[in-house]
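The record is kept unedited without comment:

——
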Amino acid sequence: MQFFYAFEILYNLSIATLKASILFFYLRVFNLVSPTFTRVLWCTQVSNLVNCVVFTTVKLNQCKPFSYSWEGWDGRHMGRCVNLNAILISHAAINVAMNVWLLVLPVTQTLWLNWRTRQKMEVMFMFGLGVL
C-alpha cells in the first residue's frame, strides 16, 4: 500500500513534467510566431505548475495521520481522510482539460501558416493523433 501511495505522488510529478516538456517544446517551435501566443504558453506553464503543487500537496495531506493512507483499510487504525473520490475526479477533469488545451494550442498556430489547405489539414491530423 505504501508503494501505491508513493506512486500517486510520482504520478502527479511525472504528468506535470511531461506537460512542461511539451510546453517548452511549443515555446521553442512557436517562439517567433507572436508575443501573445508566447504569453499564453507561459500562462499555461504556470497553471501546470500550480496544478502540480496543489494536487501533490493535497495528496501528501489527504490523511491524518500520514500513515493512515496505507493503514486505514483494515479498520484497526485510527485516523481520517478527505474525500478521495472528489480529489481523483477533480484531478482527472483538470488533466483532461489541460490535455485538450495542449492539443488545441499548436492547431491554432497551424491555421495561420502560409500553407495550402491540404498541408494544414495534414499537420492538424498529426496533432489530432495525440487524442488517441
Remarks:
- The mean pLDDT is 87.
- The two ends are 31 Å apart (CA to CA).
- The helical segments are 2-29, 35-60, 68-71, 84-110, 117-128.
